[in-house]
Amino acid sequence: MSVRQTIEQVKAGKLDPADVLKTVVATGGALSLLLVLMFPVYWIFTTSLSQGAGLMSSEGVFADPSTYNLDAYRWVIYESSFTDALVNSLIVVTVTVTVSMAMVIPGAYALSRRQFAGRSKILYGYVLFTQVGAGLSIATLIALYALFSNLGLSNSLVTLGLFYAASAIPFNTWLLKTFMDNIPVSYEEAALIDGASRWDVIREVILPLSKPGIAVVLIFTFLAGWNEFIVAQRLLRPENYTLSVELYALATSGQYETPWTEFAAFAIMFALPVAIIYFAAQNYVESGLSFGGMEG
């Protein structure tokens, strides 16, 4: 509805001015909140284009747009360790996503559709690992570091990916299970009556209807391998650094100051794949979170 139409309806008594005022205030508040949340992103982006090495220019917070350049991005691509760290991150993410999805999808289907001995205990165990696991993170990290060091696996990208997968499986299995719980059983029964086998039902009914939930799980497992820093920083050596660890190393590389322009460009390129994946699967993500009971 346009502003003119709103004014005309208020004059005609079809709209309550108080309701219009509430809508304006709510919209203004939402836009203000959006600007506050996006300000750090805008600041980092403009910093990556500026000259020098500081977060702020001598003229204020933002540099003169006429001085913007791509030197920092050229440095990241051609002179830094970004490419090697990118390959390392892709190896870790590939292992994390592949193992997680191979376990999460059949596990979620079994917990949602099958009754078997120990099912309730497994569900309680998943809740325990999901809700209590974060509180045990420090103890887990110490034990993990000691175990991997003793086994000679403290510098393995594959081992790191397996650890991320193990950490991601409980929560994402539970999330996908709650999504599958919302798929009517009558769809499966109708397919079985029509002569479909159990595998046909899973392939032709369950998986297509679970695409939004699977998309959410895929993104969450991707983020588990892409963004994690603490475990990777403790277990990996410089030649196997992932992007998150390499970004931290860049921030602490200067003896007296941080090269903020290069850091900003590195951070933008590090975050870009996550943004692209999310926006490409946005409709699936919103639908999956809604039906999975995580909306709001």
Automatic annotation (TrEMBL):
The entry's cellular-component GO terms read:
plasma membrane
Pfam families found in the cross-reference section: BPD_transp_1 (PF00528)
PROSITE patterns assigned to the protein according to its UniProt record, in alphabetical order: ABC_TM1 (PS50928)
Keywords, alphabetical: Cell membrane, Membrane, Sugar transport, Transmembrane, Transmembrane helix, Transport
Superkingdom of this protein's organism: Archaea
Entry's Gene Ontology BP terms? transmembrane transport
Domain called ABC transmembrane type-1: residue spans: 86-281
Transmembrane helix among keywords: yes
TM spans (from-to): 20-45, 90-111, 123-148, 154-176, 263-281
Q: What topology does it adopt in the membrane? A: Multi-pass membrane protein
UniProt-listed InterPro entries: BP-dep_ABC_trans_perm (IPR050901), MetI-like (IPR000515), MetI-like_sf (IPR035906)
Places the protein is found: Cell membrane
By sequence similarity, the record places it as follows: Belongs to the binding-protein-dependent transport system permease family. MalFG subfamily.
**What name does the UniProt record give this protein?**
Carbohydrate ABC transporter membrane protein 2 (CUT1 family)
Tell me which species this is from.
Halopiger aswanensis
